[in-house]
Design brief:
Layout (H helix, E strand, L loop, with lengths): L5 E3 H9 L1 H9 L5 E3 L4 H20 L6 H17 L6 H32 L2 E5 L3 E5 L10 E5 L3 E4 L5 E9 L4 H5 L5 H4 L1 H9 L5 E8 L2 E3 L2 E3 L4 E5 L9 E3 L7 E4 L6 H7 L3 H6 L11 H26 L4 H11 L35 E3 L5 H18 L1
Parallel strand pairs: 1-5, 7-8
Antiparallel strand pairs: 2-14, 3-6, 4-5, 6-7, 9-10, 11-12, 11-13
Helix pairs in contact: 1-2, 3-4, 3-5, 4-5, 5-9, 11-12
Length: 390
């Protein structure tokens, strides 16, 4: 068994959601497997995050080309959606709609959020930088032990030498409950320890910056970045009218078809409507006892998972494997087809609800890690295997 276990926030939350999903997603075949096609929500979130990261990086150079960043994000989203279709009218409409949403969110963020954020916290300390926190079984910092991997979206400092961890979250909710839910999201606060270990200074507070996508209504995305409300006129006597909000007698019209496109639409968007698209938590202060408990509990669980996988590696009997999986990776059946959200992507696996026995030939691929320490460890493992077989 390895003395060092690498894990991250996603592994933890997946394990809480359903231990069996954690097995398929991160442990199966030593790397975990994922569906061959990236879910749209994940792709959109990644595209938006990449654009916001580009804004921060270019801000350091003093040359933020928001038109290039926003247009690139729009094209990426459009092409990803249209490439998987037959190009029907509905497919093109949907691709344009979702691409407009991405472009609008990026342009809206740069107009409304970024100036305020960088004025309050003018010092950019880290942008999606790989960071780790090594801890023992008591949740305390240690030289060797379990390693929590993190890549915080943004770390900023104010003029009083305080450090703030900014986390971007695309969301379909902006209600008060969503805002308040982050107060006890210990798996998010735990990243502060990785920041502290890397930068050598404690994090003052966490701020979650929401990126509101809106919701689907009558097969259309309900967002001011997608549709305007228009009422035709009778020139030259009555001019056509356009509104950012619904009005009786007005009909939805695609923003991407308007004169000036998304750029002009966002630049003229009323401040109150624009602000509503970017909910933000107040500074959330770190509960050290809670974070320490999180790491102590993860040490126990990650050790159990590591031991279980080592046992599974040398177990050949199928019934024994099934018993081990049921013990260490039990299913949460309420997560297979939840009332809200998407079905579990591993429902079709044998051992869950399906019959797939060879997932790599039936719509799944090996998961590629986004954390460099894990990539390095996997490469080292390959080298050792090649050396042993030579």
């Amino acid at each position: 068994m390895s003395n060092i276990k690498l894990y991250d926030r996603s592994r933890s939350t997946t394990d809480w959601q359903c231990p069996r999903r954690r097995y398929w997603n991160y442990e199966y075949l030593g790397k975990g497997i994922v569906p061959d096609d990236t879910p749209q929500a994940l792709y959109m979130g990644t595209t938006v995050h990449d654009a916001l990261s580009a804004i921060a990086r270019l801000h350091l150079t003093g040359k933020v080309d928001i038109d290039l960043i926003a247009d690139t994000a729009r094209k990426q989203m459009y092409e990803a959606l249209i490439d998987s279709t037959d190009g029907s009218f509905d497919d093109v409409l949907y691709a344009n709609e979702q691409a407009a949403l991405v472009e609008g969110l990026v342009r809206g963020f740069y107009r409304r959020v970024w100036p305020t954020l960088i004025e309050e916290y003018p010092n950019i300390l880290a942008i999606e930088q790989e960071m780790t926190y090594v801890h023992d079984g008591f949740g305390k910092s240690a030289e060797t032990g379990h390693t929590f991997m993190a890549k915080p979206d943004l770390v900023l400092g104010d003029n009083d030498d305080n450090i703030y961890y900014i986390e971007y979250k695309t969301t379909s909710s902006k209600k008060e409950g969503w805002i308040n839910s982050w107060n006890t999201a210990v798996q998010l606060h735990s990243t502060s320890k990785a920041i502290e270990r890397t930068l050598g200074k404690s994090v003052t507070a966490v701020i979650v910056q929401g990126i509101y996508k809106g919701y689907e209504s009558y097969n259309k995305q309900n967002s001011p970045f997608c549709y305007a409300y228009m009422r035709g006129g009778n020139p030259p006597f009555v001019k056509p009218e356009i509104s950012y909000e619904y009005k009786a007698g007005f009909k939805k019209s695609p923003v991407w078809d308007l004169d000036g496109g998304m750029k002009a639409w966002v630049e003229s968007m009323p401040e109150n409507i624009l602000t509503e698209q970017f909910p933000r938590t107040p500074p959330i202060f770190i509960n050290e006892d809670l974070v320490e408990t999180f790491f102590a509990q993860r040490f126990v669980r990650e050790t159990e998972i590591d031991m279980t996988m080592n046992i599974l590696d040398v177990t050949e009997d199928d019934e024994t494997k099934k018993m081990i999986l049921n013990s260490s990776f039990p299913q949460r059946f309420d997560q297979c087809s939840p009332g809200y959200g998407s079905n579990c992507p591993y429902r079709a696996m044998k051992g869950c609800h399906g019959v797939i026995e060879d997932p790599l030939n039936q719509g799944y691929i090996l998961r590629e890690s986004h954390h460099q320490p894990e990539v390095d460890m996997q490469k080292e493992g390959i080298k050792k295997n090649e050396s042993n077989n030579s």
